[in-house]
Amino acid sequence: MRPSANIIPLALVGLVVTGIVGFIVVVLFISWFSNPPFGLGNAPAQPIDFPHTVHAGSPAEGGVGIACEFCHRNVTEGAAATVPAVEQCLFCHQQVNPENLVADASHDGHGHNDLAGDLAEMQRVVDKFNDNDPIDWERVHRLPDHVRFVHEAHLRFLTQGEPRTVSLPIGDGQPMQLPVPVGQACSVCHGDVASMEEVQPQPGQSLKMGTCVDCHRELNAPTDCTICHK
After folding, report:
1. H or E stretch including 165?
2. For the chain, which residues make up each domain, given as ranges?
3. What pLDDT, on a 0 to 100 scale, did the predictor assign at position 73?
4. Within 10 Å of residue 47's Cβ, how many Cβ atoms?
5. How far apart are CA 52 and CA 66, in angstroms?
6. 92-100, long-range: CB within 8 Å, 24+ apart, which pairs?
7. Which pTM does this prediction carry?
8. Which terminus of the chain has fewer Cβ atoms in its 10 Å neighbourhood, N or C?
9. How many CB atoms lie within 10 A of CB 91?
C-alpha cells in the first residue's frame, strides 16, 4: 500500500509550527525575566522628532537645560509622569519657530540650511497646534497594566529628606548621595535622557519585577504584592 502523499507536507508543516511556537515562547521567556532581545526592545518611532539633547541637555553642550518636570508636569504629583500637550509645546515654540529662526539666521548673516530638518519638525508642531490636533507620542517605557507605579512617591524618596547614602540595584550600582535634583532622580530608572537624541530603554536600567523587589528590600520598603499590583 502506497504511503500517503500528504505525510511529508504535514510533517513539514508540523516542524514549521513547532519552530514558530518555540521562538515565541523563547522571546516571551527572555522578555519576562530580562530585557527583550536586541532589536525587539527599541523605542518606537515618534510622530515628531524631539531631541532631548536640545531641550534638556546642558547649556554648556548646546542644550536649553529644561527641567524634566517642566514638561512631565505630573511626575512630582501623581502616578504617571505624563507627556506635554501640544499647547504646552507652544509656550516656547510661539517664539522659537521656523519664521523667527530663519529671520535670526538671516539677520546674523548665517545660512540656515543646516536647520532645515529642525525647522520642518518645528513647523509640524505649530501646524498641530493651529489644527487643534494633538501629538500622539508613543510610549517608550511601559509597565504591564496590572502594575501600579507611583512616580511621586519614588521621586519624593530620592529628592527629599535628610542627607543619606543609599545603594540601588539599578543603574551603575554605585552608592548614591540623597537627596538629589529631580532630573538626577529620573535618570536612576530612565538613564541620562538629557544626553539622548532619541529616548531608548537602557540595558542597565531593567524595569522588571525582580529589580523593583530588590530595590524595595535594599531600602526596607514594603514588598507586599498589593503595593505594586492592582
Report:
1. strand 164-166
2. 7-41, 52-74+82-130, 151-228
3. 93
4. 13
5. 9
6. 93/122, 93/125, 93/126, 96/122, 97/122, 97/123, 97/126, 98/122, 98/123, 98/126
7. 0.74
8. N
9. 12
